[in-house]
Write a structure and sequence with these properties.
about 200 residues, alpha/beta, Nucleotidyltransferase, domain 5, five-stranded mixed sheet, globular, RNaseH-like_sf, hydrolase, nuclease, exonuclease
């Protein structure tokens, strides 16, 4: 069993090929960008933001996808292979050993499907943190709000371009950082109140 590394949380946000309606018959949705942000657990500080552009093999970037994400076919034509991106996650970010997080389960499911279909080793361990659900539970919302709405509720700015992996990962890390700080403050207050 892989050892656990709890110094940082790896926040991941993916963008994938998409269309305004159903996918064309000869294409399927696949990852075109992996956004990464490392969050230092002790300080709650965001350490690094990175974007890995991935060249799709079974689809092309549609005008709708470009409008949504700002990613063009020309950009991903110069991207790396999905295999190389997964290797970077494992080797440079210890993704198998670290807790990793995303906003919702979409990113986890997309990775699982694409790894299975491409017969590539899944780059993450089993410790996945769903920040969307965590946010909804902490704030006692009746539903799980989108990332932009969660930032608004927390009175945090949306930094960068929404629907770009690196920027979204950075913003999600900001949400998670505030949630962790809230837990620590509440815990410290309760512990102090219970001291004789």
């Amino acid at each position: 069993m892989p050892r656990k590394i709890l110094d940082q949380v790896l926040i991941v946000d993916v963008e994938a090929t998409c269309w305004e309606g159903p996918a064309p018959e000869d294409q399927e949705s696949e990852i075109i960008e992996i956004g990464l942000c490392t969050l230092d657990v002790a300080s709650g500080e965001r350490v690094e933001k990175r974007s890995l552009l991935v060249k799709p093999q079974r689809s092309r970037v549609s005008p709708f996808c470009t409008q949504l994400t700002s990613i063009t076919q020309q950009m991903v034509d110069h991207g790396m292979s999905f295999t190389k991106a997964c290797t970077i996650l494992r080797q440079e970010y210890a993704s198998k050993e670290r807790v990793w997080a995303s906003y919702g389960d979409y990113d986890r499911r997309v990775f699982e499907r694409q790894c299975r279909e491409s017969q590539i080793e899944y780059p993450f361990g089993v410790r996945h943190l769903n920040v969307k659900t965590l946010f909804a539970l902490v704030h006692a919302t009746r539903y799980e709000p989108g990332m932009a709405e969660a930032l608004r509720i927390m009175q945090l700015p949306l930094e960068g371009t929404h629907h770009r992996g690196g920027d979204d990962a950075w913003n999600i890390a900001g949400i998670l950082s505030e949630l962790l700080k809230h837990f620590r403050t509440s815990f410290s207050s309760e512990t102090s109140a219970n001291q004789p």
